[in-house]
Amino acid sequence: MLFYSTKTKGLKASLEEAVFRSLPPDNGLYMPEHIPQISSDFLNTIESRSFKDIAIEVAYTLLAEDISRKDIEKIIESSYDFEAPVVQITPDDYVLELFHGPSMAFKDFGARFMAALMSYFLVRSQREIQILVATSGDTGGAVAQGFYKVPGISVTILYPSGKVSDIQEKQLTTLGHNVTAIEVDGTFDDCQKLVKEAFLDNELTSKFNLASANSINIARLIPQSFYFFSAYAQLKKLNKPLVFSVPSGNFGNLSAGLLAYRMGLPVQQFLASTNLNNSVPRYLDKGVFEPLPSIETISNAMDVGNPSNFIRMTRFFNDDWNLVREKISGYYFDDEQTQKTMREVFGNTNYVLCPHTAIAFKGLQEYRLETCGNFVGIFLSTAHPAKFIDLVEETLGKSIDIPERLKSLLSIEKVSIKMKPSFNDFKMLLMNDL
Per-residue pLDDT tens for 108-129? Predict the structure, then answer.
């Protein structure tokens, strides 16, 4: 399959080039030149398939021109030793739990697949690469875990100082070996800008084989589509239309859902549920995309003022605003509404939500009130609530259990390199091999 740049349709790349280059030379994003359809026979029997079986079929449908089915099976087998279960919360609402991987966040699905895919190509080409990634929270931990000690790959993670939770910070600053953390005195947007500038710098790209593990990389987007198909498989027996509420920051997750939809997954509506960083809900309302500087909220992983994947989201609909808003509804909520939702859900169901998941549930509630439709609502739980333990316990007024894999991190000292959001400083660090 070929991938084209969202800025220059004639600028195309193979799968391997798109994965390792991450960004096209014109600073666009890679999109598949065509989107193949999933087999109707597969959809007819999907309820009997395991998550790995679903992942193999979806990946092979997309990548059959580049990778054999046998090799795709190996990639999937090495990537996933965890599931994406759907749990009923109310009679018509279900939570898709995406926190059962090693870093206990949905980013594990993309990072593990991407690490395995890159390793597959690196074994063939016998070369080494330098991964650069910006994180607003969970991406860093997932990438650190997914690429930890993978031969031929070095990882540099940039994160905004003081704007990720303690556990999130420990997940990306305590591994060492081939993983380096840079603590930036700024916002996530500053971190993301530094990464993008690095990919456009000729001196850096001539010295290093640079790649990104952010959702700007197409190898992150593809595996995130797997769990949309898996959720459908688990709820197909209900024989009702599906509405997905997606907590959204950089909008990679929602773009992955749209990829699944374009491949043939039956979805009635997607909900772009976010916090006060509401550039996409405003676009859906007015038809104008006006990114603003990011606002700090308690749902920190969604504090993205200028989401990179916005162009992918609209490109699935040929950039037609009317078509976009027919399939996607936008909602945004402040911290007070988020915490109120966390308390209400816990009080009614005893289920603990992280703040991002609470926003997804609240979006589903609003859509249900507006439409009064007969549908099954699925809201994505993107991280284990213990990753935000101080906030969650303060909001609920009670202690919650911390999984052992997170608890063990708290006693380990973090190791990070502190810097201002200066590209010259960042470039100097990279050129001097950190």
Answer: 999 899 989 988 998 877 678 8
